[in-house]
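S.,

Sequence below, as promised.
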Amino acid sequence: MTYESTFLVHSSTIPGVALTIRRVSVARRLELLRRVRELASRVEFYQAGAQLNDKLEASIASAEIEGLYVVWGITKIDGLSIDGSEATPETLVERGPEPLVREAATLVRSQLGLSEEERKN
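The prediction came back faster than expected:
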């Protein structure tokens, strides 16, 4: 048997772009969930608040989680350059097209098998 720890997905958002995604192992899942836990508790705390600032803080933490999924779960991006350089997961999150960032985060979350509540965060 040969096991590949990554797999390729062609973007449905941006034609010609392909994302290499990590397959999830027990150790990788634990690593990511530990990193997400703190941010997710911030989202929950701020979502309970009534002030506009609370809602903004919840949005910031949610965006940080989305970026974390992309940087953690995407190993390579083919067919995309950002500001003249080959795209990386970090540059995709920092300066890339937002629809592709969201697609990448969704693909990573789907590999984790997260519950509906965890996916909202």
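The chain has a mean pLDDT of 87.

Coffee later?
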